[in-house]
Amino acid sequence: MVEYCKKQNIIVTAYSPLGSPERPWVSKTDPLLLSDQKIIDIAKKYSRSPAQICIRYQIERGNIVIPKAIEESHLKENINVFDFELCDTDVKALDDLNKNFRYVNMKPAKCHKDYPFHEDK
How much is the mean pLDDT over the chain? Predict the structure, then answer.
């Protein structure tokens, strides 16, 4: 979908790029993005938080990023992502993390004629 949008000059929004760990419908079997060991290792390499790595990754993909933050410290952390770049190897490692999982399934929009998402669990 992202590649199609780019070819059509449509900018993609990375809504909930941190995996919405506090979402009310979270299941014990859902992958925890910010606890993924590859993301943690990359974060340590750059002396950043896993959240900063996830946000920076989306920026480097050319996506608009909308992370949720309630705590002032998280707001400051989330904006502090413009003074570093991920190397190609780390971008590739993050690309390979695709678990074909949708953290926010948009089921309220399921009846819309242009609903583009596959049925989630």
Answer: 86
Strand 64-66 with 13-15, pairing: parallel
DSSP string, 57-77: HHHHTT-EEE----SHHHHHH
- Strand ranges in 13-107 using DSSP code E only, listed in sequence order: 13-15, 64-66
What distance in Å separates the CA atoms of residue 4 and residue 102, rounded to the nearest whole number?
18
Domains of the chain: which residue ranges? 2-18+32-100
- Read off the pLDDT band of 56 (50, 70, 90): very high
Tell me what pLDDT residue 41 has.
98
Rounded mean pLDDT of 12-38?
A: 84
